[in-house]
């Protein structure tokens, strides 16, 4: 980089913004990192944060030494990149865009002619060209003449964020017919994937349909699992055989869909319309899986009243510590409602302090329980030994929602194993 390289202000330093700011700084840019949360800012200034991603710690520390400055106010910069939350307000049935608006106001206060503003948060189609544009134009500058306003969705997979941030293809789109070349140049400078261009609304839409596609496909797998159960068939065997067809690729059934994005983003497509039917139904199918898990357990144990049950895995998917929208909590609530007396939760990746709930070690969780439910597909669970369970459990029921255990081996060891 040279002295003439642009400065970049990243607004929001969470799961997306912090790796983004660090990657930009490590690529040689001068980066201001602004987060609205003062505690998070002061932790970051000390190099401390509780976002767990492979290599992120080292990467952020390196950036903080050279290039990334955590600031208590947004700063003037040639590029503003906005990575703030966009939660879905289920009571109002719409996306909460207040954080995007607040960030837009902060950008407007620092905006100069010629700057580029890029929204990276996931939003309903039309947000950048509508709400965000209105807010940023309060600066007195126009998005079609004086500055460039654009959108570029983030598609990183939690657990593999740093790699995907640098390697995934990207889409960049602008509003007001502005050229995309400066956005392309920015991302091209640190991304090895292809950079595609569109208008901002198309770029917003593409992000949403990617996650709705995955949600819908997982729902299909989950529905197949329920049907297979009904017909007394092994769902995994049937799916593996169906997938031998050259144009069939059914995903893996499981305990439901968790995470910060896939259960939420498809809802953004309903914005100002009532068209989605398939997408909404897929949501309901996936949201119904924790109930199906509870039904499997009830069928195996009879009455759940007074039972002790261990839930293996709290994170929403294997190999991560993220518990946002995790099916484990929904399963736990459902089992308690059905009368389960004692529920033990265990997870090798999650800390009790982070979730405000006491977690047990794997061994403790199994002591004298009537049943164990494997919820999260943590890689470690593939190597579980039936002997450890037999030595500790008082019952012999295992519900394996991820089909990770070798049924024959566990049944030979005396367990009744039920798979989703
Ligand atoms: N977590 C993920 O893996 C992915 C998230 N996304 C999307 O990216 C966006 C951000 O998500 P996350 O990083 O996960 O959220 P997050 O909650 O981890 O981080 C957001 C950060 O923004 C800060 N913030 C809130 N208002 C602010 C403001 N006005 N100015 C500056 N900072 C502000 C918060 O204090 C927080 O630290 C969301 O729209 C999300 O849907 C997209 C792809 C992947
Ligand atoms: C289209 C797509 O693959 N989107 C990714 C997704 O990340 P996320 O970790 O939420 O996705 P995931 O690995 O499919 O997991 C979602 C949930 O679905 C479950 N799951 C996943 C695949 C499967 O066959 N069966 C299944 O039950 C997982 O256990 C998890 O609970 O959402 C991210 C996001 O938008 O935040 C996005 O950036 C990622 O690229």
Question: What attributes characterize this protein structure?
Answer:
alpha/beta, Rossmann fold, eight-stranded mixed beta sheet, five-stranded parallel beta sheet, 38% helix, 15% strand, binds 1,4-dihydronicotinamide adenine dinucleotide
Task: Write a brief caption for the model.
The protein is 38% helix and 15% strand. It is α/β, with parallel strands linked by helices and 420 residues long. The chain folds into two domains: 7-198, NAD(P)-binding Rossmann-like Domain (Rossmann fold, 3-Layer(aba) Sandwich), CATH 3.40.50; 288-419, NAD(P)-binding Rossmann-like Domain (Rossmann fold), CATH 3.40.50.720.
What ranges have pLDDT less than 50 throughout 5 or more consecutive residues? none
Helix content: 25-40%
SS element count, helices: 16
Query: Which strand order do you get reading across the main beta sheet?
Result: 3-2-1-4-7-8-9-10
| Beta content | 5-15%
Biggest beta sheet summary: 8 strands, mixed
Count the strands? 15
What is the averaged pLDDT score?
96
Question: Could you say which small molecules are bound to this protein?
Answer: 1,4-dihydronicotinamide adenine dinucleotide, ligand SAJ
What radius of gyration results from the CA coordinates? 24 Å
How far apart, in Å, are the first and last alpha carbons?
Answer: 53 Å
GO molecular function: UDP-N-acetyl-D-mannosamine dehydrogenase activity
Catalytic activity: UDP-N-acetyl-alpha-D-mannosamine + 2 NAD(+) + H2O = UDP-N-acetyl-alpha-D-mannosaminouronate + 2 NADH + 3 H(+)
Keywords: NAD, Oxidoreductase
EC number: 1.1.1.336
């Amino acid at each position: 980089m040279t002295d003439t390289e642009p400065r970049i202000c990243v607004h929001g330093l969470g799961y997306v913004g912090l790796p983004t700011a660090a990657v930009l700084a490590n690529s040689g840019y001068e980066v201001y990192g602004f987060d609205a949360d003062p505690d998070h800012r002061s932790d970051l200034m000390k190099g401390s944060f509780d976002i767990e991603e492979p290599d992120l710690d080292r990467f952020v520390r390196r950036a903080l030494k050279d290039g990334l400055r955590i600031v208590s106010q947004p700063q003037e910069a040639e590029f503003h990149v906005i990575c703030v939350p966009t939660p879905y307000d289920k009571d109002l049935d719409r996306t909460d865009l207040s954080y995007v608006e607040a960030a837009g106001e902060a950008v407007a206060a620092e905006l100069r002619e010629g700057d580029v503003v890029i929204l990276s948060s996931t939003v309903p189609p039309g947000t950048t060209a509508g709400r965000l544009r209105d807010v940023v134009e309060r600066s007195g500058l126009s998005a079609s003449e004086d500055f460039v306003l654009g959108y570029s969705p983030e598609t990183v997979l939690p657990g593999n964020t740093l790699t995907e941030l640098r390697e995934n293809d990207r889409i960049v789109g602008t509003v007001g017919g502005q050229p995309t070349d400066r956005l392309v140049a920015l991302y091209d400078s640190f991304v090895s994937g292809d950079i595609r261009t569109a208008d901002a609304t198309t770029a917003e839409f593409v992000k949403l349909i990617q996650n709705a596609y995955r949600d819908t496909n997982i729902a299909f797998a989950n529905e197949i699992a329920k049907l297979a159960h009904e017909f007394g068939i092994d769902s995994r065997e049937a799916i593996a055989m169906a997938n031998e067809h050259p144009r069939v690729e059914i995903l893996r059934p499981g305990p439901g869909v968790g995470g910060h994005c896939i259960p939420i983003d498809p809802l953004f497509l309903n914005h100002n319309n009532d068209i989605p039917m398939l997408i909404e139904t897929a949501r309901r199918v996936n949201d119904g899986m924790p109930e199906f898990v509870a039904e499997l357990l009830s069928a195996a144990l009879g009455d759940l009243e007074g039972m002790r049950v261990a839930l293996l895995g709290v994170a929403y998917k294997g190999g991560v510590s993220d518990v946002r929208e995790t099916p484990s909590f929904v399963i736990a609530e459902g089992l308690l409602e059905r009368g389960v007396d004692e529920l033990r939760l265990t997870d090798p990746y999650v800390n009790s302090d982070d979730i405000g709930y006491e977690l047990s070690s794997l061994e403790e969780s199994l002591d004298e329980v009537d049943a164990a439910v494997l919820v999260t597909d943590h890689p470690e669970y593939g190597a579980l030994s039936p002997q450890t369970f037999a030595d500790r459990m008082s019952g012999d029921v295992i519900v394996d929602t991820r089909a990770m255990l070798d049924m024959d081996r566990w049944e030979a060891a005396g367990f009744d194993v039920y798979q989703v």
